[in-house]
C-alpha cells in the first residue's frame, strides 16, 4: 500500500463532490465533470466523461484527438493540454499523473498526490487484453475510485476469443446471410475488429458510416485494423448486399431502415449486458456476444485488492453490491452517487454523428 506520512490529509479533506462532479480543491480542477468547468481532467473520450465547452482541458493526446473528432474543433476546451502517460504535472501543489486504464484508446486513470496522500480515479477500465489500447496499470493508493458498471456476481465476462469464435461459427453456418454486429463506434468497434484479425479473419470488414471516422483515428495512432470498407448500396431496388460478410454498426442500426440493404442479416450485439438473456431477447438479438470494455465482477474485486487501498469510492453502476463485498474483505467502501453517468455498456450514449440516424455516406 502507498505509505503516506502520518500527518497526510485524508483525501476526503481535499477531494469533494460538487454538482459538476469530483473536484480537487487544492488543485482547483474537476475530473470528468458533468457540466462545463474552468479546468477539467478527462479520463477518456466517451461522451459521458468527455463533455464539451470546458475552459482548460488536460488529457492524453489520444483523448484530445477523440474529443476534437466527436465534439468539433474548439469544443473540447478553450485551452487544451496533452500529457503522455507517466509524465507528472504539478497543478497548484497537486502532482497529477495519467496512467493507462485499458478501457479504450487513450483512456487514463488520474493519479493525484497531495501532501503525502494519494488518490486514484480509475475512470472506466477493463483488465482483459486488448491490442487497441494500453493495459490497465494498478497503482497502490490510499483511496481508489472505481466504476461499478458490472458489479454483480452474475457478470463474469468470457474471453473475447470465445465470443469471436461463436461469431465466426455463425458466419460459416449461414453463408447466405450478412452478420450485423452492433457495437459502439469508440473502443468496442475497434476491439472487435482486432479480435477478428487475431482469430485469423483476414477478409474485408464492412462498416456503417458512423464507425469509419473513429477507425481512421485509431489507425492514425498506429492501431492496425486491416481492410475496412463502407457498406455498399444495392445496385437495384429490392436487392440486398453482403451475404456471408460481417458488418459493424452502431447498436441502434439493427432497427433502422439502413439495415434493410443487408442480406437477411443475423443480428448480433457486442456488450457485457448480453450476459442477461432477457435483454438480448427483448431486443431481438439472434447472436448475443458478451464482449465488454468494463471490468467484470471478479476483475473489480481483483483490482481493488491489487491497488491495496484501505478505502474504495464506488460510482457508475452497482455500488451497493461492490461495497458489501469490499466490507467483507476489510475495505471501507463509499458510494459517490455522481450525476450524469450513463449505465449503458460503455457509458457512452453515442453522439448524433455516431448513431444509425446520423449515418455518414456508407
Automatic annotation (TrEMBL):
The stretch of residues making up the signal peptide is none
Q: Which UniProt keywords apply?
A: Exonuclease, Hydrolase, Ligase, Nuclease
Which stretches of sequence are listed as region Disordered?
339-362
Report which superkingdom the organism of origin falls in. Answer: Bacteria
GO molecular function terms listed in the Swiss-Prot or TrEMBL record = exonuclease activity; ligase activity
EC number(s) stated in the UniProt entry for this protein: 3.1.-.-
Report whether Ligase shows up as a keyword of the record.
Answer: yes
Keyword Hydrolase: yes or no? Answer: yes
Protein name as annotated:
Ligase-associated DNA damage response exonuclease
